[in-house]
Predict the 3D structure of the following.
Amino acid sequence: MDLASGKVRNVGSGAELQGESLPPEMLEILEAGGILAVLRSQSRA
């Protein structure tokens, strides 16, 4: 599953589906390690 592009691939059959990608804000939260990590880093700034 590629959250940035919205693609989901079945590794067994190779079938691919296209869904909606996550908004950039959500991707940033996930890359930071979750909402708590984001809030902790903001409180230290």
